[in-house]
Amino acid sequence: MPSLRSLSLLLSSLALASCGGDPGAETGATSSSTGEPGTTTGTVDPTVGTTDAPTSGTTGEAPVVPEFGATFVVIGTAADGLHAVRDLEFNPAAPEQLWTFNMLSHGVVIYFDPGTPQQTSEERIDAYGQHFMAYVSSAAFGDLDTFATCQESRNEWNVGPQDPDDFMGPALWPADLDIFAKVGQEFPPNGQEGSHLDMLHQSPLCMGIAHEAGNAFWAFDGMNGNIVRYDFQSDHGPGGSDHTDGVITRYKDVTVTRLGNIPGHMELDHATGMLYIADTGAGRLLRLDTASGTNTGKLIGDWDGAEYTGVEGADVQVLAEGLDEPSGLALHEGRLLVSEHGTGDIVAFDLEGTEIDRMATPAKRIMGITIGPEGDLWYADAGANEIVRVAP
């Protein structure tokens, strides 16, 4: 567990007090609850914990964006284990699972059949999550029954507390519930460090992540201020340490600005290869053509023995400016939905950056957003420690 000294240093540097709580949570742990979100018994009443919209659209009339609605239904709370929840994703291979990612526990809460009378939840924290999921900012599922996470960390813990050394970047995890936070939980390690499948280490203070294909992901490097493509290629298996087949490509002139404790989420349009980025610190929405740019060769400073090169001249466009701390981002049916942490609004844009409409929410600190299997909009509220579904 981190020492009090190291926790105090980290909390000061990231200004975490606004989220509350103690990052020194139990590791290698699971817990579960059933019934109404925020309780341990009973059944879910989807009307419990609802809030009417402060406004509906920009004119007060019915919203022109189908994902917007007038009612906000609280699905999950701190009673389920939410602890500064900053992102949420439905598992595409098991859409009845909603995974939530919690900064101050370095772990997840998984909701099964969320928002239904059958809803249950389970908290899982890998025994080595304080490194491999340290102060997790964001997550993205892949297509190989895996997901990857970004960590807003400078590596303050690595099998014990330590001075930050920036050996940090995105991690690859199994979505298999028989493996994730189940395998390799012995501490100290005995040949396995937890259940993570891989990790590459060129992006401390990583703020956002998006899946491309296979084990390839795009990351928002908050420390160095670039977008970086990571391909883990073949993972090393649960708890391993061989990273040498990784391919890391830094887009050196695609500049992004981290705003501490506020993720900058990303989405890749797989049909066009366009990567959409919430550039939080600059208040912008960016679009990167991932097929553009010229590889300029090897970069120095590789931690992993991996292939590490740079790209320059990529086509990146500013789609929208003047946003108030853009954080969450979802791409759905030709629209970009962006949460503004500064206002609590969710803003809808077309793919050229023209604002279509916006919706106010009651969120205290809105962050990640996602589209559910039924096409409805969900968001994470780190300030209230709530998962919320937007209902018509």
TrEMBL record:
Region annotated Disordered, chain positions: 21-63
Signal peptide bounds: 1-17
InterPro entries: 6-blade_b-propeller_TolB-like
Keyword Signal: yes
Biased composition range(s): Low complexity: 21-55
Keywords, sorted A to Z: Signal
Name of the protein: SMP-30/Gluconolactonase/LRE-like region domain-containing protein
Natural source organism: Nannocystis bainbridge
